[in-house]
Amino acid sequence: MKIFVSGGQFFADGFAVRRAFCLNEGEKRLLCYVAEEGCGCSQVSVKNGRVTADGRSVLAVRWAEGVELRPAPHFPRWLTKRARTEVASEGDAFLVELRPAPRSLLRVTGAATAEWEAATTLLSPRLDVIEGQKEKIVKVSALCPEGEYLAMIALHTGAARLLLEDFGESVSCRGNEVTVRRRYADLMARERTSTYLWQGEDFAPSHMYVCANDHSFKQEEMGRLLLEAALANDKTAASALLSPEVADADALFDYFGPILAVEPPLFESSPTAVAALCREGEGLVATLYDFDFDSRGKIKNVRRLNED
Predict the structure, then answer these.
(1) What is the pLDDT of residues 249-276, one digit of tens each?
(2) Is 254 exposed, middle or buried (0-12, 13-18, 19+ CB in 10 A)?
(3) I need a surface site. Which of 9, 16, 62, 85 has the fewest CB within 10 A?
(4) pTM for the full model?
(5) Is 211 exposed, middle or buried (0-12, 13-18, 19+ CB in 10 A)?
(6) In the sheet that 28-35 helps form, which strands lie side by side, from edge to edge?
C-alpha cells in the first residue's frame, strides 16, 4: 500500500520521505516527523488492508487512492482535562461529561442517555447549569482551535437534547440571545455572524454573511465555492451557484454531510474536482467531488468520484 505524507518532513525507519512510501500487509515502520507544530513519531502498520498508527502523533486521511498521514495537532495536557457535573432535576439525577481533545465528546448518563461528537476540538472545557427554565440546561463552554465554543444541553426525564452548538472567533451571551462570529479561510473570505434567540423551549437561529472577496470566479473554482458554502451553511451562496433545476441547497447539504475542510485533490484529477474532508472514527476520510455545468456556467450535477 502506498502511504503519502504532508505537512512536515517525515522519516520512515530513519530514511527521509519526500512524498510517499510503500508498506505491505503486516509490515511496520517507525514514522517520525518535524513540522511547524512540533515533532512526533508513531509506529505505522497495515493490517487487513487498513493503515493504523499507534499513539496520537499522526492523523490519517483515507483517500480512494491511498492513505495520507499528517502531523496531528499538539495540545498541552492541562488544556485536555475532562469536565463533568452532576445535575438534579425533580428527583432525577444526570451526569454530564465532556471529553476534550483530540476527539471531543459530550455525554449524558443517568436519567437520560445521549452522546454527541463535538463539531470541533475542545480545550479547557467548563460546564455550568442554567436554572429558571422548564428543563435544566447545561452550558458547555470551551476553547477550540477556531477560538471559542458553546453548546447548550437540555435535560428532562428520559431525554437529553442538544439545543445549540457553534464556535468561532467570539461567542457572546446576553440575556436570551447568543451571538457567534466566525471567519472562514475560503475563496470568498467569508465571515458569518450567527444569532440564536431563546424562545422558551428552543433557540431560533439566524445567520448573516459578509464576504470580503466577493467577485466572479473561474469555472474550475465553482465546485470549491459550493463545498465552502456547505461548510459555512451559506444556502444563499450555494443556490447562486446552482442551475435552477437542482437549486435545492438543503438537499445538497444533506448529501455532502458534515464537512470539516475543503481541499484540492491529493492526486491528479479533473480541473474542476475538489475534496471534502469528513470525520471517520479517529481519522478523516477525503471524498472527491466533480461537477457538470449547464450552458450558463451553473452547476447542474454533482458527482462523487470515489464512491464505493
Answers:
(1) 999 999 999 999 999 998 777 899 999 9
(2) exposed
(3) 16
(4) 0.89
(5) middle
(6) 15-17, 9-12, 28-35, 38-47, 50-53
- Report helix, strand or coil for 237: helix
Read off the pLDDT of residues 28-64 as tens digits, 9 standing for 90 and up. 999 999 998 789 999 999 988 888 888 778 888 999 8
| Cα–Cα distance for residue pair 63/217, rounded to 1 Å | 27
In tens, the pLDDT along 172-222 reads 999 899 999 999 999 999 999 999 999 988 999 999 999 999 888 999 999
- What integer pLDDT is reported at residue 308 of this predicted model? 45
The grid coordinates of residue 212 equal 470580503
List Cβ neighbours of 131 (8 Å cut-off, separation of 6 or more). Answer: none
Band of residue 16 on the pLDDT scale cut at 50, 70, 90: very high
3 state DSSP class of 271:
coil
Q: Classify residue 184 by burial, with Cβ atoms within 10 Å: 0-12, 13-18, 19+.
A: buried
Q: What is the spatial distance between Cα 84 and Cα 79, in angstroms, rounded to a whole number?
A: 15
Contacts of 54 (CB under 8 A, 6+ apart): 42, 43
**Amino acid symbol at 105:** L
CA 260 – CA 277 distance, rounded (Å)? 6
